[in-house]
Amino acid sequence: MVTLYIEYEYWFAAAQLILAMLGMGATLRPTDFLAVARSPKAVAIGTGIQIILVPAVAYAFIQFSGAGAGIAVGIALIAAVPGGTISNVFTHLARGNTPLSISITTLTTLACLVTTPIIMGLLITEYMPANFTMPRARIAQEITLCLLLPLLSGMLFLKLLPAAAQHFSNLCVRASLLVIALIAAGSLGSGRLDISAFGLGNVALIVLFMLTLVTLGAWVPKLLGLARADITAIEMEVVIRSINLGLMLKVSLFPAVAGQVDPIGDAVLFSLLLFGGLLLLVGIPLVGLRRRQLAMPTPA
What we know:
Blueprint: H1 2-7, H2 9-25, H3 30-37, H4 40-64, H5 69-80, H6 86-93, H7 98-124, H8 136-160, H9 162-189, H10 195-198, H11 200-223, H12 228-239, H13 243-253, H14 263-295
Helix pairs in contact: 2-6, 2-8, 2-9, 4-5, 4-7, 4-11, 4-12, 5-7, 5-13, 5-14, 6-7, 6-12, 7-8, 7-12, 8-9, 11-12, 11-14, 12-14, 13-14
């Protein structure tokens, strides 16, 4: 299983994205996005948190925690990538504003062609190779093939077969969650998560960074007066990062070389995989909590 996962790691990630977006698309109509467009405040707040506040928090962690180079680059990558499409799944399961979640994911993913190199440059210039080039064409291709086309295909399924759409959506979402579990198991089984080499202090730092993002995503939109469903969507967008994109950028920044030890690259990889594992540990109970809260009547 581990050998199979390592050989086809990219395709596991691609399958998860495609299944998630098919499932989401099968629950959405074009009018759902029109409703979001008529209320741009939530989109602006969610996007602003992603592009400005999350990198600011990462900068504070890098500057004041005394993190080594590998951990600093790992935290910067986590902050620089957009919200992952898993956030759309979690928002859907938590009964949040799914069209808002998808809108923010799509907007920040497209924007990352510009924002990611800027954020990386601001946070960790001293750690980046001089010849680093953002793989813009590959990112654009993956956005199109793994996000936009499956989303549109799911919406087309809903239009053509509305009676079967909900069942189709449930199957896709559950299959997507299964693939997420397989990705986590494959990463653990491959031996790339060596806590003794990484250090418990660094583990605690990544955990604290995750919890800070949870607090940021929950309280900033609440203080700005958004509705519960919108807050849930933005919270999931802030917490659930596109770790798959982060792993791809790690390979571009610090490619593995046979026979050579790369402590910085290994620490970056561990940071990303650890954060990805924490997404499930934090995200699943967060979904349950938000479902209960959204089911409660809104105070008068």
